Amino acid sequence: MSSVTLVARAKLPTPWGVFTLVGFEEKATGKDHTALVMGDLSDDEPVLARIHSECLTGDALFSLRCDCGFQLQAAMERIAKRKRGIILYVRQEGRGIGLLNKIHAYHLQDQGADTVEANVALGFAADQRDYTICADMLEALEVKSIELMTNNPRKVKAMQEYGIKVSKRVPIEEGRNPHNEFYLSTKASKLGHMLNEDE
What we know:
The chain has 199 residues and is an alpha/beta fold. It is built from eight helices and seven strands; from the N terminus they run ββββααβααααβαβα. The chain has a seven-stranded mixed beta sheet, with helices on both faces. Helix 4 packs across helix 5. The termini are far apart.
């Protein structure tokens, strides 16, 4: 049984082209999640895709502490260039700890902790995200095979475990700057993210 219900669709014009915004409700929590879709996803060709966890600070407030906003924009640009693709925008702020706890984690990072140490100090796992909803969203949109834009091997593994074929992992390293250098190096060393690769 699917963990999400597809609720509504609408056009979303953006600077990079017109996407279709698809709204989902997570049955267990009532949380709303969205997919940004462009082009026809119904054939058997792998779909260029990104699983993007909500990041208010990076996506909407232009934070330089992370690379999230830069990755989201790059994913939209790449999909628009290909005229076909999907972004799953899931409400799992702060690798699943929520916005207010993320602000607490930022405070600990201001005192010298890294992003993993901060989450653990607050009583959370380093990464609490659940990708079940992502597989169910893809299934609802009849997407069976993807080229996944990610630096995170856990996302690739999770999709494969949930029955989504990942035909290719596409690196998406964007927005490196002095404010997020330590954050990115921690993601590489402690969370296994694949960074500093040729695009």
